[in-house]
Amino acid sequence: MLYESQSLKHMILKTLFARLFPCGDSVGRRQFVGALAGISLASAASAASIGVNFVNTGDAGVQNGTGDALGAADVAGAAGYAHANWNNLGRWGNPTGLNDSSGSGTSVNVTWDSNNTWGNGADTSTANGKLMAGYLDATGQPNNNSNPYSGWDNANKPDTLFTGIGSWLAAQGALSYKVIVYSDGDATEGRISEYWLQNATGSDFGSLTLGTDLTTHRFLKDTSNFSGGFTEVTDSANSVGTAGEGNYMVWSGLTADSFLLRSEERDFRAQINGIQIIAEVPEPGTVLLLGLGSLGFLLARRRRS
Predict the structure, then answer these.
(1) Considering the entire predicted model, what is its pTM?
(2) Are residues 10 and 117 in the same domain?
């Protein structure tokens, strides 16, 4: 598919070149080549990602030494979202800077807390098994929805606050991002948990000002332990009665500089195994249209001259 789209792009550009510069205008050629380079570079751009893997340890902060910690070269994630250089984190942590999928530092920080961590017995000899093995656990209490909101309150765990996304996003040349949340506990009886992203501001994780919801609420039903396959819980799983059987969720088109990932136990426990933030870059077809617009502008200038 990629080969076919590239061939079509080159055929269109070749035709435009012949019509724009039938006499071999050297200046026009240079302008055309510059525009073509912009199209090619943009088309080749790949989405930068930030991945967080919660490991099974009661210790705080970055934790790269556990059996379920991902190595820098380990590529993990659901199809279409997998990457290397995950950040391995323990049970809780104060603002912690995160690396992206290239291993470079970013402006993004995360603060998080849970009642404890646990494991579901996934095979940690594989990268995806490591991602899904350990998780942040909950207390079984209903949320305390007071405003200001305390991320340290036992009733609200597990929760995670990401900040500084805007600067990182701008550095990628992107205007929006996706968030992927992985969830799979050690039970198989079909316990249900609820997840959503909410606007929250403030420098103190224990006293955040809650804003509006940034996403829909997803209800996930945990009916099996991870054995190598990923199943998405989609937007149709919007209530306890329509909870979806799966182990990850995706929200797209987000633009907020920060977000609070919230969870609520609907049937005994909620858990968070991992989180990804993925920059949404233009699709190659969109980039091509923008590039063709630039070439059309060149053509218009030539007609006026």
Answers:
(1) 0.81
(2) no
